[in-house]
Write a structure and sequence with these properties.
The complex is a heterodimer of chains A (100) and B (147). Chain A is an alpha/beta fold and 100 residues long. Helices cover 37% and strands 35% of the residues of chain A. With 147 residues, chain B is of the alpha+beta class. The chains are: A alpha/beta (100), B alpha+beta (147).
């Protein structure tokens, strides 16, 4: 699992690659702190190279969404695969984020 | 097909589980979509045991077996049996998360077993001879070659 972060003026983009499972989510939680620190901005999560997500990964997505609600930002998810989209749909997470 | 996997109760073992599921998928010529669903459901079930069965104890075992069965009507299933000898815990009785809530009101947690129950056709729990036994039945898509 890797997270590459790129910051522009009003937008901060996180590019996720690999598996976001229970074993890797701790590392991801630590690496996503720049995203949480910019929860007042537009956050884009590029998931086009994200291969897998489990509930531990969903929890981190939700904590980021909660932070943006508190600070006035938003989260847009891009490039999601059909399999991961199904996970978001089953859990009701699909309605909690913007998708492009 | 019949196979088994033994894991210790350490979250890093999830990687071993993923490799086991991937290999089984190749052996059974399962579509990517099915492998993804099995990966997800089994990880959630196994992590649940690792989190709750052995409070404060390391180096404890969790075993998972898989067996394919062909039914009279031609449909095919994989029966997974997850076993541990930790404290009694029936995950099928866990409260179901409300998936209609807004982000502000959603709790962080409670999704793992919900996903297992959604992805598997059936999930049953029994406590037998000091073991927790979770039996999960997954219906294979049609036209999957059976080995």
């Amino acid at each position: 699992m890797t997270l590459e972060i790129q910051q522009d003026k009003d937008t901060i983009t996180g590019r996720l690659e690999g598996r976001l499972d229970t074993a890797t989510s701790q590392q991801f939680a630590a690496e996503m702190s720049p995203l949480l620190n910019n929860a007042d901005k537009h956050i884009v999560l590029d998931c086009s190279r994200l291969e897998f997500i489990s509930s531990s990964g969903l929890r981190l997505f939700l904590s980021l969404r909660k932070a943006t609600i508190a600070k006035g930002g938003d989260v847009t998810i891009t490039g999601i695969t059909d399999e991961i989209k199904q996970v978001f749909t089953i859990t009701g997470f699909y309605s909690l984020f913007n998708f492009k | 097909m019949q196979k088994s996997l033994s894991l210790i109760n350490d979250i890093s073992q999830v990687t071993v589980l993923a490799e086991w599921v991937s290999l089984m998928g190749k052996e059974l010529f399962l579509p990517m979509h099915t492998i993804f669903q099995l990966n997800l459901a089994l990880e959630e079930a196994v992590v649940n045991v690792m989190n709750y069965a052995y409070p404060g104890k390391k180096g404890q075992y969790v075993t998972l077996t898989a067996k394919t069965v062909k039914n009279i009507d031609g449909s095919e299933h994989i029966i997974f049996v997850l076993k541990d000898n930790g404290i009694p815990f029936d995950p099928t009785q866990a409260p179901k998360p409300d998936t209609t809530l807004t982000a502000e009101k959603r709790n962080i947690g409670g999704l793992g077993i919900f996903l297992v129950q959604h992805l598997m056709e059936s999930v049953t729990y029994e406590r037998r001879e000091e073991n927790n036994i979770l039996t999960m039945k997954y219906r294979l898509p049609q036209n999957t070659p059976m080995l």
